[in-house]
Amino acid sequence: MRDMNGLRRIKYLLITALMSLLVIGGQVKGQEEKDPHRPPCTSAGCRKVKSFLKAHYCGEPEGNGPDDGCGIRFPKKRLGVKVTADFNCKWIDGVRKCQQQGQPSAELHDILVGELRRLGLPPKATGQIYFTVWESIGSGWSLASAYYDHVAGPDLALCEVILIVDQSSRATVLRKVPFQKTDADKNTVTTWSPIDLADVDSDGRVEVILEGDAYEDHWFEVDSVQDGSCHTIFSGLGYYL
Fold it and tell me: Which of 77, 90, 100, 175 is the most buried (most CB within 10 A)?
C-alpha cells in the first residue's frame, strides 16, 4: 500500500507541475501577444479620451477587432478647423484614385517637400504628392501633411510626413514614413491619416486625431500639441482583419 500511495503522490506532483507549466506558458504567450497599438487604458484621462473617440469617430464593428473595437468614421464636418488643402481617395475598378482639393501656400509646400526629401524621396520621383493643410482656429497652429505614393507593377513606393506648423512657420514633425518600397497588394508599412482636430479631453486645448494603418490593422492615435512639442496621449480602438 505504501508503494501505491507513493506512486499516486508522484503522479499528483507531476500533474501539478505540468499544469503550472501550461499556465505559465499561457501567461508568457499572452504577454507576447499584447497589442502594441492598443495598450491598457486604465487612467481616468485615458478613459475620457476613449469615450470621446467612441462617441464621435467610431462606426459599426468591423473585422475581428478588439472586444471594444469599431470601424473608423471620418467626420463630415470638422468644427473649428479651416481646411486649406485636402485630398480623398476612392477605389475604382480595383485601382486607387486620389483627387487633390486646394493647395498649401508656396512656403508651406517647400517645407513639406523638403521634409519628404530628407526622408529619402528622390528628386525625380514619378509619383504624386498629396497635401493636407488644416488650420486649428483659435489655437495658433496648423496641421500640414504630404503623402507620396507610386505603384509600378507589384511594387508600391511611398513616403509621408505630418507636421504641426505654428504662426511663425516653425514646423514640428508629428509622424514620418521614410521613402521605401513595399508590396502593392499587401502594404505592411504603417501610414497615417489625419481624422480631426478636437479637444478630446475637455482641457481647453485642441489635439490631433489620427488613424494608423498597418495593412489589415487600423487604430486611433491622439497627440497633444503644446508649446511646440507633441506627444501621444492615446492609442487604441479601431479594428483588424
Answer: 175
C-beta separation of 239 from 62 below 8 A: yes
Residue 219 exposed, middle or buried by CB count within 10 Å (0-12, 13-18, 19+) = buried
> String of b and e for 179-210 (b: at least 16 CB within 10 Å)?
beeeebeebebebbbbbbbbebbeeeebbbbb
CA distance linking residue 234 with residue 47, whole number of Å: 9
Residue 223 pairs with which residues in a beta bridge? 208, 232
Give me the pLDDT at residue 13, please: 45
| 72: Cβ contacts below 8 Å, ≥ 6 apart | 57, 58, 59, 195, 211, 218, 220, 238, 239
End-to-end CA distance of the chain: 58
Q: What is the pLDDT of residue 1?
A: 44
Strands (E), 42-154: 81-92, 95-101, 128-136, 141-152
Cell 513639406 belongs to 112
**Is the CB of residue 37 less than 8 Å from the CB of residue 235?**
yes
**215 bridge partner residues:** none
Q: Give pLDDT tens digits for 16-56.
A: 444 444 444 444 333 346 889 999 999 999 999 999 999 99
- As given in the structure block, the three cell numbers for residue 20 are 503550472
Within 10 angstroms of residue 96's Cβ, the number of other Cβ atoms is 12
- pTM of the predicted model, to two decimals? 0.83
